[in-house]
Rubredoxin-like domain-containing protein
Amino acid sequence: MCTTGGMPADIEISEVKFKRYKCKDCDNKFKGAGKRPVCPSCGGEDVELIE
């Protein structure tokens, strides 16, 4: 089960579409999902989608 701050939901992790992001604060590149990904390295919210 997974929660995102709202109602709990049953999801299959294989169905989640991960995208690649780059943090503008620390230049860390990471995969994330959701509308507002946060850098796992520094916690920065200023990230950009990369190809």
